[in-house]
Structures are given as structure tokens and as C-alpha cells.
């Protein structure tokens, strides 16, 4: 007969006594609260990014057209992104944030290109000869949309890594990567 209970009891007692040290467990260090300049920069970025934000949801069913409003927003996207990029260029920022500005600008430029391809896919007519629908996922992959979107990702992620923690501390809008660029994600409220 094998005694299985004893090793479990011994292991439990070891864990119990291992946790009874006199030192308190280390507490994760919190970031200092954002200063006035950081809070202002968060507000400026949020105002700048709300203009070109488009929340595109790809239809689940194959060959389903994007909604008319989404297609309109995609059609208008290059002008809105150009306006945001111009506003970004005029934005007064500390020299230490120049890299963030450059990465965000490049990410927005690439998203503008990706959105042009996404719109072309969304408006692509069905093939009369083969009967293939214009909005097939194969056609989207063939359009090079993914390549531009993938090139934009690291630039936009670098911006989010700098912006989102400060925005979350101030309960401002944070951003996430969507199909057509950055989309707002509201800060979580506590309680």
C-alpha cells in the first residue's frame, strides 16, 4: 500500500513555513503620476487621433459588403489622416518625444495606404466570368492590405506603449490597433 497523503501534507507545510518570513513581499512600484505637460500631450494626441479613427469590423460571412458608412469613412480616410499628420507636425512636444512623433507619423502614413486598399477591396465588383465575389478574403489578402497594415503595426505599437500608460493613469482614452488604424478604447473605471 502506497501512502500518498503524507507527501502532500509535507509539501503544504513547507509552503506554509516558506511564506512566514519577516520581510514583506515586494510591492510593484507604481509610476509617478503624470505631470501637467504629459496630461496635456495625452489630450492633444487624443484630439488628433479621434479624427482619423475608423472602427472597421470585417463581416463574418464571406462576401458580405462593408456597411455604407464604413466605406464612406474609408473613402474620407486619406484626407483625415493627412490632416492628423499635419496637426502632429505642428504639435509642440519635448525633444525626448520626437521618436514617438516620428513613429506615429509613419504608422499613420502606412495606415492611409492600407485603408485605400481596404476601400478598393470593399468596392470591388464580383467577377462576371468566375462568379467569385469581390469581397472574398482571398481578394483582401491579394490586395497587399495586410502588408501595409503589418508595416504600420510596430510604429503604432511604439506610440501606444508610450501613450496608453499615461492616458490610463489620467482616465483618458487609450488606443488599440484595429483593422483601419488606431481605435479608441475607453479607460477602465475602478469600482
Structure explained in plain terms:
- By secondary structure, the chain is mainly alpha-helical.
- The protein has one domain (33-53, 66-185).
- The chain contains 6 helices and 2 strands, in the order ααααααββ.
- Strands 1-2 form a two-stranded antiparallel sheet.
- Helix 3 packs antiparallel against helix 4 (98-122) and helix 4 (98-122) crosses helix 6 (145-169).
- The longest helix has 25 residues, at 98-122.
- The protein starts with a helix and ends in a 6-residue tail after the last strand.
Identify the notable features of this structure and list them briefly:
191 residues; mainly alpha; two-stranded antiparallel sheet; 6 helices; 2 strands; 57% helix; 5% strand; elongated
Q: How would you summarize the topology of this molecule?
A:
Layout: H1 5-18, H2 36-50, H3 68-90, H4 98-122, H5 137-142, H6 145-169, E1 174-178, E2 181-185
Antiparallel strand pairs: 1-2
Helix pairs in contact: 3-4, 4-6
How are helices and strands ordered from N to C? HHHHHHEE
- Give the C-alpha Rg: 25 Å
- The helix fraction, in percent, is 55-70%
Distance N to C terminus: 53 Å
Please tally the β strands and state the result. Answer: 2
In percent, how much strand structure appears in the residues?
5-15%
Amino acid at each position: 500500500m502506497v501512502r500518498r497523503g503524507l507527501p502532500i501534507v509535507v509539501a503544504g507545510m513547507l509552503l506554509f513555513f516558506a511564506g512566514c518570513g519577516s520581510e514583506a513581499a515586494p510591492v510593484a512600484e507604481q509610476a509617478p503620476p503624470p505631470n501637467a505637460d504629459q496630461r496635456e500631450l495625452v489630450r492633444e494626441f487624443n484630439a488628433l487621433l479621434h479624427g482619423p479613427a475608423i472602427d472597421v469590423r470585417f463581416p463574418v460571412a464571406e462576401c458580405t459588403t462593408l456597411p455604407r458608412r464604413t466605406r464612406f469613412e474609408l473613402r474620407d480616410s486619406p484626407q483625415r489622416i493627412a490632416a492628423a499628420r499635419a496637426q502632429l507636425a505642428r504639435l509642440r512636444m519635448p525633444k525626448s518625444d520626437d521618436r514617438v512623433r516620428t513613429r506615429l507619423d509613419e504608422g499613420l502614413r502606412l495606415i492611409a495606404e492600407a485603408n485605400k486598399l481596404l476601400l478598393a477591396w470593399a468596392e470591388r465588383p464580383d467577377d462576371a466570368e468566375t462568379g467569385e465575389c469581390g469581397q472574398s478574403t482571398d481578394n483582401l489578402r491579394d490586395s497587399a492590405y495586410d502588408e501595409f497594415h503589418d508595416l504600420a503595426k510596430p510604429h503604432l505599437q511604439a506610440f501606444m506603449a508610450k501613450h496608453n500608460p499615461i492616458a490610463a493613469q489620467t482616465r483618458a482614452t487609450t488606443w488599440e490597433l484595429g483593422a483601419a488604424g488606431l481605435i479608441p478604447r475607453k479607460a477602465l473605471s475602478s469600482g
